[in-house]
Specification:
Shape: elongated
Radius of gyration: 17 Å
Structural class: mainly alpha
Number of helices: 5
CATH topology: Ferritin
Oligomer: single chain
Largest sheet: none
Order of helices and strands: HHHHH
CATH class: Mainly Alpha
Bound molecules: MU-OXO-diiron
CATH superfamily: Ferritin, core subunit, four-helix bundle
């Protein structure tokens, strides 16, 4: 059994991860509409990863005797001024998610909930990778995206992303 406050935070994070999946699908919708199918594909996979994160947290709660509850998932309501805008919004969003994960970790640390801290280790590392990926996408877009050939090549590169389930995550 884990502390009620920690359980509540992790349960809320399930919703945030599902929202992340929704947000990235919204990016994918935008890019599909812009004819950038590689970008759309990249974010479709990102959405799958976010769903995996939600499922890992859900499983952690269930395995610790917590009844998981679901809230409504917020509607992504962003308007994108240009094809770089979702990339920047994605980076900002990942920084926000990192702050949420760090906050849960901090609360677990405060009450010496070592089990939850160990569970969150995987997510701390994952957030580092996700922030780096998001930042790299912005850099590449700024370097190559303004030229038609560069944008084409970048779109092709992103189209090659392969989904790998996050089953290698924390032992539960
Ligand atoms: Fe679930 Fe993008 O962090």
């Amino acid at each position: 059994m884990i502390d009620k406050k920690i359980a509540k935070l992790v349960n809320e994070q399930v919703n945030k991860e599902l929202y992340s999946a929704y947000l990235y699908l919204d990016f994918a919708n935008y890019y599909a509409d812009e004819g950038l199918d590689g970008f759309a594909h990249w974010y479709e996979i990102q959405a799958q990863e976010e769903r995996d994160h939600a499922m890992m947290m859900r499983r952690y709660l269930i395995d610790n005797g917590i009844r998981v509850t679901f809230d409504a998932i917020a509607k992504p309501d962003k308007k994108y001024a240009d094809t770089t805008a979702p990339l920047k919004a994605g980076f900002e969003h990942e920084q926000y998610v990192t702050s949420l994960i760090n906050n849960i970790y901090n609360e677990a640390f405060a009450i010496k909930d070592f089990k939850t801290m160990q569970f969150l280790d995987w997510f701390i590392k994952e957030q580092g990778e996700e922030e780096k990926n998001a930042e790299d996408m912005i850099k590449k877009m700024e370097l190559f995206g303004h030229d038609a050939k560069g944008l084409y090549a970048l779109n092709q590169e992103l189209a090659a992303r392969v989904y790998t389930p996050s089953a290698t995550g924390p032992a539960m």
